[in-house]
Amino acid sequence: MAKVSKSKKGASAGNAIPLGSQPFLDSVNHYFDKAVRYLNIPQGILNQIKVCNSVYYVRFPVRVKGDVQVIEAWRAEHSHHRMPCKGGIRYDQAVNQEEVEALSALMTYKCSVVDVPFGGGKGGIKINPKNYTVEELERITRRYTVELIKKNFIGPSVDVPAPDYGSSQREMAWIADTYQTFSKDDINALGCVTGKPVGQGGVRGRTAATGRGVFFSLREAVNDPKLMKHLKMSVGLEGKRIIVQGFGNVGYHTAKFVQEGGGTIIGIIEYDGAVVNDKGIDVEELAAHRRNTGSITGFHGAKTIKNGNSVLEYPCDILIPAALENQIYKENAPNIKAKMVVEAANGPVTSVADEILLKKGIYVMPDMFVNAGGVVVSYFEWLKNISHVRFGRLDKRFEEGSNLRLVETIERLTGKDLTLAERKLIARGADEEDLVNSGLEDSMINAYHNIMETLRGDKRMQHDMRTAAFVHSLSRIGQSYELLGIFP
Length: 488
Ligand code: NAD
Fold this sequence. Notes:
The chain is of the alpha/beta class. It has two domains: 52-200, 3-Layer(aba) Sandwich (Rossmann fold), CATH 3.40.50.10860; 205-392 and 430-488, NAD(P)-binding Rossmann-like Domain (Rossmann fold, 3-Layer(aba) Sandwich), CATH 3.40.50. Helix content is 44%, strand content 14%. The protein has 16 helices and twelve strands. A seven-stranded mixed beta sheet has the order 9-8-7-6-10-11-12, with helices on both faces. Strands 1-2-4-3-5 form a five-stranded mixed beta sheet. β11, α10 (351-359) and β12 form a beta-alpha-beta unit. α6 runs parallel beside α15. The chain binds nicotinamide-adenine-dinucleotide. Nicotinamide-adenine-dinucleotide (NAD) is lined by residues 163-166, 210, 245-251, 269-271, 308, 322-324, 345-346, 371, 374.
């Protein structure tokens, strides 16, 4: 079915964009333009890669608190060079068309950098989810899904959404159920959306995947002796002082894995305040406090700072913005004191701020690589859905049997017996979560080294990891277009 493009400029981004900051799409296009100077791709192909292929803008009515409310929503498909398109759905009052287009472009570049064979997509529903009951949110989500079905903007081979800011596995389950209702004959229907609960066709490890991926990317960087020498930092995570902005899905999991990996979390920032403790904050205790009180503020293990975002400017080794875009902008960038900024959120640093940070010698690890763990594991979930089998189901016991035979042979030859615990550890076959985490780790490690090879292969890029990531990503997309040819 042909794509429908009902474009309309959305409302301004409202209070999500801090004073003096710039539209997210400007930043993404700026990075694109900067990278193409290093590439030898025909201009026509570059023009095609840069633009968003189709955008669907829709308004639909929903019954809310006895009244009818008109909801605005979007779905953008940035690139069809690989199908399906892939990208989250954002539930946020500040969502607008430019933002959704920018995020969908970023998804195209992100998929390419971590070698996931999808085009980029992104959706947005212009609501503040906190203002709706669960029942109302379900109605809005199901109606949005039906609108996407009507215009062929969803489906396992067409466009596959996932969670993003303001949405979670709950919404993904509603989307899957709605799509299945309308596609009874599609055996792959569950692959229409990822980030679902495991009981609804989700894959183990997806919820934590983005944060785990952030951890893997950071671990690779701090274990890179050349990079650490350049930043005058010791190798390894041990003792590094880290601040995380946002304690949602990505922020919480990032903080948790980074702490488990030896880093010291000295500050966590939320929209209603921050908590700081130079000696370190116990991430699990803070999460429990938030569950009990609804806020991270007032936590007994740290000092509460009312103006949360001022903590972005605290001295630390590593600053991890994991909340929203445009958090480090022209006005506050000169005050950032971290040695590294690791973009766990999408677009937290504007392109103007990026130049300021680069000039200050602050190393920026770009979002298109750092937070790609979510889409990597979404890819695994989609593979699981279309192959209709859980990872590890066929080979786990076989692997265990082989390992056990090996252990017994070694015991017989050496005359020494292993303890029960040692036997279990060595013989254990990989289950779904082990395989997902292993595939994620491999993808992030490979992507890091590919980007660094590009960076170190051209001295003009100096220490601009973002440009190197764009160059690496765009060269792959360009190759793909050249091989595909242009139809007709
Ligand atoms: P989320 O809704 O689970 O969490 C976001 C958190 O940020 C919330 O706790 C919110 O209260 C907090 N927040 C909002 N405004 C803030 C502010 N001004 N200062 C500090 N904290 C603030 O969302 P998420 O899924 O964790 O997504 C966070 C970011 O990561 C977004 O940019 C999203 O696009 C990106 N991302 C998410 C995924 C994923 O798998 N969820 C994957 C890739 C990228």
